[in-house]
Amino acid sequence: MNVIPSFNLTEQYKLISEEISEVSLEILTSGQYIGGDTVKQFEQQFAGYIGSDHCVACNSGTDALFLALRSLGIGAGDEVITTPFTFVSTAEVICALGAVPVFVDIEPQTFNLDLSQVEAALTKRTKAIIPVHLFGNPVNMTPLMTLAQAHRLWVIEDCAQATGAKWDGQPVGSIGHLGCFSFYPTKNLGACGDGGAITTNDVALADRLRMLRDHGQRQRYVYEEIGVNSRLDALQAGILQVKLRYLETWNQQRQTIAHQYQQWLSPLPGIILPQEIEGGESVWNQYTVRVLTPEGAENQRDRVKQQLQKHGVGSTIYYPIPLHLQPIYATLGYQAGQLPIAEQVAQEVLSLPMFPELTIEQQQQVVYALKESMVKT
User: Fold this and answer.
1) What stretches in the chain show pLDDT beneath 50?
2) Beta bridge partners of 101
3) 226 phi, psi to nearest 5 deg
4) 314, 306 in Cβ contact below 8 A?
5) What pLDDT does 198 receive?
6) Which of 207-241 are b and which e, b meaning 16 or more Cβ less than 10 Å from the residue's Cβ?
7) What is the pLDDT of residue 267?
8) Which residues carry the post-translational modification N6-(pyridoxal phosphate)lysine, per the record (predicted)?
9) How far apart are CA 159 and CA 182, in angstroms?
10) Which terminus of the chain is more exposed, N or C, with fewer CB under 10 A?
């Protein structure tokens, strides 16, 4: 039986191994491993791809979010509105600066922030909103930016899973005041290690971000602020330059796979398929369905996952416990039932295999296995 993983990096590497080896050898031979022309070139290329004036590379998507908040002066006592259904980094960095995450429920169709509930969550202490373009599906940024402008709030786009996604024809990361990206290997544009970047059209913010990522110095050994060591190394920048050339093709392949899933799975009872909203163009970092559980029954999602494994199909659960119910946020006072959509979705979501090199035969096996798994549950 052929085993189909949730994600496969080796197939992608086979396609570009010679280019990766060539650029890696050039950088290793150069002796310039931190900063330098390779990093600057990648920053310029990535800014051009996103459609932003500036790109500041750093060493992870988590640091991108942290540095973005730091650059805006957000700190103790400030409130930042975000989603509870995301990776912990989104809220983790808020707390790391002494600020308070304010969680707002999500839309069941897109898994993204429910914008209709954001305004009610605003207080005098609200300084920023972090929308997360989850699983590659863009947030409806038009009303969000209108709301932010009306209340003089910063918008930091968490684009970790959405490099190349677009809202109303505009790439995510170029719409808010700052865009934060992760180049973790499983992302649409992934490094061979950790990496991240912040995009912005604000020259002053870009300048401050460059200072903060390098120990708070603009001039060597002259420290203006307490900074951090968050530099993208040249080797990762070189690899990302190679991969950036293929990103549009890979994203199109993901879209083709997603649309095929939609077609083949649409009649399947007990499953709710992910949806793109009008005006949005997803890049499908994940293809995540909801497996419904009849009232009073045991969790069907967990059973389906086990059955898929028996059929040789990998699947992943993101995220089984929403952030507002995590032990580290118990002091914030959220109770079970307070954000009902996020809590329900967390019990239902299941991500099927999704990577550009997924073949039509493999996808057919996934669909067959899912249908068989639903029958057996």
Assistant:
1) none
2) 80
3) -75, 115
4) no
5) 98
6) ebbbbbbbbeeeeeeeeeeebbebbbbbbbbbbbb
7) 85
8) 187
9) 7
10) N
Q: Which residues, in sequence order, are CB contacts of 320 under 8 Å at separation 6+?
A: 346, 347
* CB-based contact 287:275 (threshold 8 Å): no
User: What are the residue boundaries of the structural domains of the chain, listed by start?
Assistant: 9-104+111-244, 247-376
Q: What is the pLDDT of residues 186-222, one digit of tens each?
A: 999 999 999 999 999 999 999 999 999 999 999 999 9
Closest alpha carbon to 57 in 284, 213, 208? 213
SS3 at position 182: strand
9-104+111-244 shares its CATH topology with 247-376 = no
Instruction: Say what the pLDDT of residue 152 is.
Output: 98
User: Three-state SS for 214?
Assistant: strand
Summarised one tens digit per residue, pLDDT across range 67-81 is: 999 999 999 999 999
Does the active-site annotation cover 376?
A: no
Instruction: Cite the DSSP H helix spans in the chain.
Output: 9-30, 37-50, 61-71, 89-96, 141-150, 203-213, 234-244, 247-265, 300-310, 340-346, 360-376
Pairing of strands 196-200, 54-58: antiparallel
Q: Which two tokens stand for residue 237?
A: 């920048």
The CATH label, of 3.40.50.1820, 3.30.420.10, 3.30.980.10, 3.90.1150.10, for the domain at 247-376 is 3.90.1150.10
User: How many residues make up the chain in this entry?
Assistant: 377
Check 187, 243, 305, 376 and give the catalytic one.
187
Which regions of 59-177 does DSSP assign to beta strands (E)?
A: 79-82, 100-103, 126-130, 154-158, 166-167, 170-171
Burial class (CB in 10 A: 0-12, 13-18, 19+), 61: buried
Q: What is the CATH topology of the domain spanning 9-104+111-244?
A: Aspartate Aminotransferase; domain 2 (3.40.640)
d(CA 228, CA 63): 9
> What are the two backbone dihedrals, phi and then psi, of residue 105, each rounded to the nearest 5 degrees?
-65, 170
Q: What is the pLDDT of residue 2?
A: 78
